[in-house]
Amino acid sequence: MSTIKEYLTQDHSRCDELFANMEDMAAKSIESAKEAYDEFARETERHFQMEERVMFFEFEQKTGMTQGPTAMMRHEHAQMRNLIAEMGKAIEAKDKDKFFGNSETLMILMQQHNMKEEQMLYTMAQQHLSAESDRIVDMMQSMIVE
Amino acid sequence: MDFDGLSVDQAPPISAPIRFFVTAPLFAVLAGILILFSDVAVLSSRFSTHTIAITHALSVGFLSFVMFGALLQMLPVLAGVRISKVDLVAKSSYAFMLVGTLSMIFGLWFDISKLILLSSLLLGSGFLILIISMLIALKGVVNVTASVRAIITGLIFALLITLMGMHLLSSYGIGKFSDLHLLFANIHSVWAVFGFAGVLIIGVAFHVLPMFYVAPRFKKFCKQKVVWLVTSGLLLWLFLNIFIESYSTIGKIWVALFFWAFSTTVYLKLNARRRKVSDITVWYWRSASIFMTLGTFAWAINDFFDEKYIVIVSILIGGGFILSIMSGMLYKIVPFLVWFHLNAKGYMSIPTMNDMISKKLAKAQFFLFILSLIGFIVSFFIPNILPLFAVTFIISMAILEYNIVIPILIYAKIIKTKPDFDMSMFEMKVEK
Predict the structure, then answer these.
(1) Are B411 and B341 in contact (CB under 8 A)?
(2) pTM reported for the whole predicted model
């Protein structure tokens, strides 16, 4: 089974693929991007929740750090959720400029966020939670999105 | 484990990188003006003080301002470390570098030795403050990635070229040149281009291309070995240059080979990127890789022509490669920082990044810039036309300045209004 770091890093790449796919569709026509958008939004939300409800939670329990890096990552998730919602509204309104304006911002924010997680948080998590790694990955895989 | 060092939440204040970014294109405009008023014959010699003034208006004034501004911003993200007292470091080094660069340019241009000596001191202090505080911060890296190794290597080269630069400038200041002056000047310039700028760009590209353009990741071999291979090539070149000069071309070809491979890889990765949306930054990456391919060949071949074409090599590599990438980066980083800092302060209705910079103006700037580079190369053979391309270069850099000032003005305007949403509950720890 993959480690926490491997599993979540691979999931970042998967979300990036979905993001690229959504932009492709939107470039062709904004109306046709709805389905790809829904898939990206759903899977990204799933990734956020896997972290917030499982991995961050376990990390906070183990280290006692609730105001550290995980708090910051939760805050950035909120920023990204907001942008993703704005992109949804742009699709509803068939406003291509607004869609791409928000998607560009989201892309940089998301990648900056991913870098911090992959560079720092996942490495720390792997160190602190290595004994429970399999269990945590399993929980993330079987989690039902709320 | 020391969690204080793991501050993923420490973004430097927006003013720290921005002041470097806003100043950079102004130095390029100044370089353009100096080219306009230059005697073409003087510029074809790389060792004339006018040529040195112009190349440093670009290399120190434009390129290093952008690179260090970006490093201030990116170290916490790329390496997960925080520069202590970042605001003080940014402010003091900026002041030293600004006055230092101006003193250097005008000191060399008008041959004022006191100004040149002053510039050696100021530029040395400015660079050393930045480099040393960054290297100290990098000691705390938990996860040493290929990019982190490249940044550290680039900074060590930066440290050495700063010391050599201080020595070289002092020689101009006092008007006494050691026997090794030309050798030092040569090492200084080659290490600055390939060891500092080149290695840093390679390191950042490992991250940036796969992440921002969803391009295929770089191969493990590439990530683990290229920086090391370039560094050993530069050391080999140094060794040959000192002891068996007639063989120094081997070192050059070694270094050129890996930069050529890198440029080709960048081009292919961009072709294979999943994110097909094309913007000005993609164009800049592409132009950079094309110019670098030509530049590496020109640099290696130049030796067989008695270094006659070194000016063309500098235009291809300094302008075509490094300046392209730095300009492209400004287009992404400045509007993003504006959005990021406003959002973190609780402002919700912010123009999107694409609304901040006019696409048409960005394209115009790009084409004028490329036209100027090609014009500079042609001017080497037809000197009369140089002023025309000095003008297109000035206009292109003035537009670049305009394009990055607009987002900052948007920031300044919005920050005077009240945030639409109270985020004080999860206030970001942005250093004041």
Answers:
(1) yes
(2) 0.89
Contact A65 B207 (CB under 8 A): no
In a domain, B218, yes or no: yes
What are the sequence ranges of the domains in chain A? Answer: 4-142
CATH assignment, A4-142: 1.20.120
pLDDT tens track for B228-249: 999 999 999 999 988 888 888 8
Give the separation between CA B216 and CA B72, rounded to whole angstroms: 27
Q: Which residue from A minimizes the CA distance to B348? A: A82
Domain-located, residue B432: no
Q: Is residue B202 part of a domain?
A: yes
Q: For residue range A4-42, what is the model confidence (pLDDT) as tens digits? A: 999 999 999 999 999 999 999 999 999 899 999 999 999
Q: Do B277 and A19 touch (CB under 8 A)?
A: no
Q: Phi and psi at residue A94, in whole multiples of 5°?
A: 55, 40
Q: What does the CA dihedral B326, B55, B257, B331 come to, rounded to 10 degrees?
A: 10
Q: How many domains does chain B contain in total?
A: 1
Give the residue from A119, A123, A126, A128 with the most B CB atoms within 10 Å of its CB, the best one to mutate.
Answer: A119
Residue B214 sits in which domain range? 3-426
Q: Which value, in Å, is the radius of gyration of the alpha carbons in chain A?
A: 16
Domain with residue B301: its CATH number is 1.20.210.10
Nearest to B103 by CA among B14, B215, B27: B27
Going by pLDDT thresholds of 50, 70 and 90, the confidence category of residue A129 is very high
Is some CB atom of chain B closer than 8 A to the CB atom of A18? no
Distance of residue A108 Cα from the nearest chain B Cα, in angstroms: 7
ipTM of the complex: 0.79
**Token pair of B178 as six digits:** 């050691």
Report the residue of B141, B142, B352 to disrupt the A interface, i.e. the one with the largest count of A CBs within 10 Å: B352
